[in-house]
Amino acid sequence: YFADAWALFGIGGVRSQVRVGQFNIPFGVNPVLESRGIFRLPLEAVDLGFKKDWGVSWQRESGEFDFEVGGFLGTGGDLHWRRGGFLFAGRLGTPTYREFEYGFSALVADTAPTMSYFRAEGPLTRRVRAGVDTIYLYGTHTILKAEFSTGTDDGRTMLGAMGAVDWIPPRANRWVLALQSEALRRNSPTDPMNMLRITAEASYSLG
C-alpha cells in the first residue's frame, strides 16, 4: 500500500502538468494548504471511502483560475482494477496560496460502497457529486476551511458538509491546534449513513 506514489511531467512549460500514480483526486478542499502534521480525514474519505486513488490527471494554470481533471481506477489504495469500475473528477478554482481560495468540483464514478484498508468491497455503485469549497487565511496563524457537496448514489440523495479551523499559536509556532466538523447524510440502500462528527487535534513539529 502506498499513501502517495506519483510522477509529475511538465507539458508546454510550467503552466501545464500531467501527474501519474496515486494521489489526491481533484475534488474538494485543496490539500496543498493543509497545516503541517494534520491527520484529520477529508470529507471525500468519509463519503467515498478514500481521497487518494490511482490514475492520471492534467493540471493547467490559466490566469485567475487553475483546473485539474483526471481519470482513476476508483479503488483507492488498491491497484487491482475491478471490472466496470472508474472515477472521473475535476476541479476549477483560484490559484493556491492566496488569502482567499475557492473552487468548484464535479465527480462521477462506479465504485464499491465500502472500502477496506487495501481493497474495495461490495457491488459497484454509481456515484455523482458536485461540490464547492473555500479556504481563508486569516492573518498569518489561522486557516479557515469549508466544503459542501451533494449528489446521488444510484439515484439516491447524498449531502455532505465540512468546516474546520487550524490555528498556529504566535508564540509557540511548533504547535498546530485544529477543530473540524463533518456532517454526512446518504440515503443509499447498500451503504446508508447519517453522521455528525467533531474532531479536535493538537500536533507538535520537532523540525
Describe this structure as you would to a colleague.
Helix content is 3%, strand content 58%. The mean pLDDT is 85. By secondary structure, it is mainly beta. The strands form two sheets. An eleven-stranded antiparallel β-sheet has the order 1-2-3-4-5-6-9-10-11-12-13. It has a two-stranded antiparallel ribbon with strand order 7-8. It starts with a strand and ends with a strand. The chain has one helix at 43-48, and strands at 5-10, 16-24, 52-62, 65-72, 86-93, 100-111, 114-115, 120-121, 125-138, 142-153, 156-167, 175-186, 193-204.
- Give, in spatial order, the strands making up the sheet with the most strands: 1-2-3-4-5-6-9-10-11-12-13
Cα shape: globular
Helix-strand pattern:
EEHEEEEEEEEEEE
Structural class assignment:
mainly beta
Strand content: over 45%
- Mean pLDDT, to the nearest integer, reads 85
- Put simply, the count of helices is 1
Residue stretches low in confidence (pLDDT < 50, at least 5 long) are none
Helix content: under 10%
Tell me the Rg in angstroms: 17 Å
Q: Report the strand count.
A: 13
Sketch the major β-sheet: 11 strands, antiparallel
Distance between the termini: 27 Å
Fold blueprint:
Blueprint: E1 5-10, E2 16-24, H1 43-48, E3 52-62, E4 65-72, E5 86-93, E6 100-111, E7 114-115, E8 120-121, E9 125-138, E10 142-153, E11 156-167, E12 175-186, E13 193-204
Antiparallel strand pairs: 1-2, 2-3, 3-4, 4-5, 5-6, 6-9, 7-8, 9-10, 10-11, 11-12, 12-13
